[in-house]
TrEMBL record:
GO CC, any one term: cytoplasm
Annotated organism of origin: Seriola dumerili (Greater amberjack)
Lineage: Eukaryota, Metazoa, Chordata, Craniata, Vertebrata
The UniProt record lists the keyword Cytoplasm: yes
Protein name according to UniProt: Impact RWD domain protein
Subunit field text: Interacts with GCN1; prevents the interaction of GCN1 with EIF2AK4/GCN2 and inhibits EIF2AK4/GCN2 kinase activity. Interaction with RPL39; this interaction occurs in a GCN1-independent manner. Associates with ribosomes; this interaction occurs in a GCN1-independent manner. Associates with actin; this interaction occurs in a GCN1-independent manner.
């Protein structure tokens, strides 16, 4: 962490603070702080604020030497975005950075992605299924979209076993995690339907969930999340699954609101519940070691890029997170 505290980076840190404050003011609840100390943020972007048809989540890590010498490290989460379209969008973001090297770039990136979503939504009248109901997205496999929407199981898939974790209670609010192994979007829907058969779970104020499915043939992940009214909670939960590098699993966290506002503590409880049940079910041994390792790698890459820039004067390479 010494690189973060280096006096040479004080100007960059101040620029980051001012940029984050401005983005938070502009985008409100769409802007989410994942880990302020590690400079990890995300924003949910849609083609239309009133009637969103396409959404994407831009996750960002700000290196210590951004914006003076390094670009943000980013990942775009959108299960429908793949192949040439993903490459086209990535290239446009990189071109923007090159045009504005040394300047704060996040606002331009967000609006470029929004512009891309608007164009995509306007050109999607060809019948291509981009998104389906209940927040489930189809990315890696050619499933029958109608079957997925209606939840009819024509393929004889079995309901995965569902595990229920220990609840956490704080100021009369209770959080309880549920976990199931999943390998198809249809199983995700089956798990949700089964959970909602439980009257207690169905009566929860929020049922936040996230899942990650690894597509062997595409060497990519199908992943999605749902806030269920708890703004930004689904994105934070999905980010936890990515940081822990788990796959073929779904985690649901039920929250029963107790009448007392918990502030940011509610996100801590949601992620703690999820991490605990992932550890209990053997999906990860420890989140702490993996997180520290990830941060070490990111900081090392930042130092390499800065040294490269000082030696060669060339523009630093872009790093896209592939969890």
């Amino acid at each position: 962490m010494a690189d973060i505290l280096n006096p040479e980076n004080e100007g960059d840190l101040q620029s980051q603070i001012e940029e984050v404050e401005a983005l938070s003011s502009i985008y409100g609840d769409e802007w989410c702080v994942i880990d302020e100390a590690s400079r990890i943020f995300c924003i949910k972007i849609s083609n239309d604020l009133d009637e969103p048809k396409l959404t994407a989540c831009l996750q960002i890590i700000l290196p210590p030497d951004y914006p003076s010498a390094a670009p943000p490290i980013y990942q775009i989460n959108a299960a429908w975005l793949r192949g040439p379209e993903r490459a086209k969008l990535a290239n446009s973001l990189e071109d923007l950075y090159v045009e504005h090297v040394g300047e704060s770039i996040l606002y331009l990136w967000v609006e470029k992605i929004r512009e891309f979503l608007v164009e995509k939504s306007q050109s999607s009248e060809t019948g291509e299924v981009i998104e389906v109901t209940s927040g489930l997205t189809l990315a890696c496999q050619s499933y029958d979209g109608g079957s997925l929407v209606t939840g009819i199981n024509h393929h004889g898939e079995e309901l995965p076993p569902i595990k229920h974790g220990n609840p956490i209670t704080d100021r009369r609010s209770t959080f309880q995690p549920h976990l199931a192994p999943v390998v198809t979007p249809r199983q995700v829907k089956m798990v949700l339907e089964k959970l909602y058969e439980n009257k207690k779970i169905a009566s929860a104020t929020h049922n936040i969930y996230a899942y990650r499915i690894y597509c062997e043939d595409k060497h990519s992940f199908l992943q999605d999340c749902e806030d269920d009214g708890e703004t930004a909670a689904g994105g934070r939960l999905l980010h936890l699954l990515q940081i822990l590098d788990v796959r073929n699993v779904m985690v649901v966290v039920s929250r029963w609101y107790g009448g007392i506002l918990l502030g940011p503590d509610r996100f801590k409880h949601i992620n703690n519940c999820a991490r605990n049940i992932l550890v209990e079910e053997g999906y990860t041994a420890s989140s702490v070691r993996h997180t520290l390792g990830l941060l070490y790698i990111l900081l090392s890459k930042s130092q390499v890029r800065r040294n490269h820039l000082m030696k060669t004067g060339s523009c630093p390479e872009f790093v896209t997170l592939l969890f």
